[in-house]
């Protein structure tokens, strides 16, 4: 039978990555941070001077990327770029290129390949709607913009990257707007997704809820 998948979709900095990690750890499953694929494609384009508005060029670039995933770390051309991927310039470029249909199509097979036994927890924007529509559990994770801006701020500061909380909030709201309004794979809950608002929730509490949903899945 098919390898089980839990999808966690939601807006920027809603805590998807953290929740995906804790749930995967509890179940002994693999993880897919799909945003990192858009980010690493953005980084490669910036480094090589590829036109980030050219869908065909971006798709070709994505298909030729030399990537290696090691747990939560990502290597591009033999270099650990995990830290660089968090740069704001990389994130905003990733947000813009993610509207390109050719690029999304090129990354489709890459994402399916992460579905390996004993299971996968995949986080992003379209995991439940487009990439793994047959997933037995789909979570749509939200949190208030203020909370998300604060979390992203702390995340960046803890990595030694300076930031302004007001700019971060404006930027994440602009990204969400773009993700929700694009024509291809827009950010929205799958019809059968369960909604989880973690604004006032600890990571442990959210993890507990998802594990309970998983245990009770139909
Ligand atoms: O989640 P993260 O911020 O790392 O994603 C970077 C960008 O990639 C997002 O702003 C979003 O536009 C895009 N993305 C997407 N589909 C996904 C994951 C991320 O369009 N499944």
TrEMBL record:
Which residue intervals define the domain Cytidylate kinase in the entry?
A: 6-205
Please tell me where ATP binds in this chain: 10-18
Domain of life according to the entry: Bacteria
The listed locations are: Cytoplasm
Q: How does it assemble?
A: Monomer.
Q: What is the annotated role of this protein in its UniProt record?
A: Catalyzes the transfer of the enolpyruvyl moiety of phosphoenolpyruvate (PEP) to the 5-hydroxyl of shikimate-3-phosphate (S3P) to produce enolpyruvyl shikimate-3-phosphate and inorganic phosphate.
| Family membership | Belongs to the cytidylate kinase family. Type 1 subfamily.
What protein name does the entry list? Answer: Multifunctional fusion protein
Q: Which organism is it from?
A: Azohydromonas lata
